[in-house]
Amino acid sequence: MEILRSKKEMQAWSEGVLAQGLTIGLVPTMGYFHQGHLSLMEKGRPLCNRLVVSIFVNPTQFGENEDLDAYPIDIERDIELAGKTGVDAVFLPTRDDMYAPGFQTYVELTDLPNHLCGKFRPIHFKGVATVVTKLFNIVKPQVAVFGQKDYQQLQVIRRLTRDLDWNIRIEAGEIFREPDGLAMSSRNTYLSEEERSSALSLSKALERARQAVAEGTRDVTTLEQDVIRFISSFAHTTVEYAEFCHPQTLENVSTVEGKTLLALAVRVGNTRLIDNTVIDPDN
To answer: Of 261, 256, 199, 183, which Cα lies nearest the Cα of 231?
Structure first.
């Protein structure tokens, strides 16, 4: 497995692979791998000839008073896990290499970032779109794999790929959960024992809403109010949003008709957690 620590090294490696007529897959990450990350690598492995994992804690997607400086890092462990998962190259750029002094070019979408997380993290998706654009240009993948837990990010990247005419196949990896239902996240390490117990309210609320729809409730106001009340009954929780949306446009809906996204963002103590599910009342 190759360890590539600069854009130039990564570009040269990719050009060599492509010159052989081989395909490249990319799994972009911020590191501190858990089984959810590894499942994305496992999904990407058979989709390409050479698989690249990038590890970069992207500063442009963090706002003021967010956890950029506290974000967990364990590069050596990540490299070991990537190697065991069959990754061919790990790309480890530095902040200065990705954003050189004088950097002033950003990529923004006009609508998708205005929903859900974007209402509370106004610069987040500009940073995401910019770093993904840069990674696509540097790595030159034919396929890229992103997790469905970051559902809005996935839709932003699909839209970005279509709008900028990249011939890159975007694959979604399913949400990977702990045995008790908690969606895996590097930020789960921030939680105290009591907070972790309260964090289960997210997955339980999703299942509660799914069951309510199955039993015939379709009114979104009723469903959202029940989700918020349920989560708020757990200690240390503050609901940022609980919204039913169209699964592609992320526009709010008033009734559950056809496949509908239920997305949550909840602060448990000082830790912001997200989760989601797509509910199909006809199935």
So the answer is: 199
Chain centre to alpha carbon of residue 268: 19
Q: Which residue has 């908690």 as its token pair? A: 182
Same domain membership, residue 206 and residue 112: no
How far apart, in whole angstroms, are the C-alpha atoms of residue 32 and residue 79? Answer: 10
Domain presence at residue 283: no
Q: pLDDT tens digits, residue range 172-220?
A: 999 999 999 999 999 999 999 999 999 999 999 999 999 999 999 999 9
Name the H helices within 143-241: 151-163, 193-214, 220-232
The residues near 118 (Cβ < 8 Å, ≥ 6 apart) are: 112, 124, 125, 152
**Annotated catalytic residue: which of 37, 115, 124, 236?**
37
What CATH number does residue 73 fall under?
A: 3.40.50.620
Domain count, the chain: 2
Tell me if residue 37 is catalytic: yes
Instruction: Confirm whether 143 is domain-assigned.
Output: yes
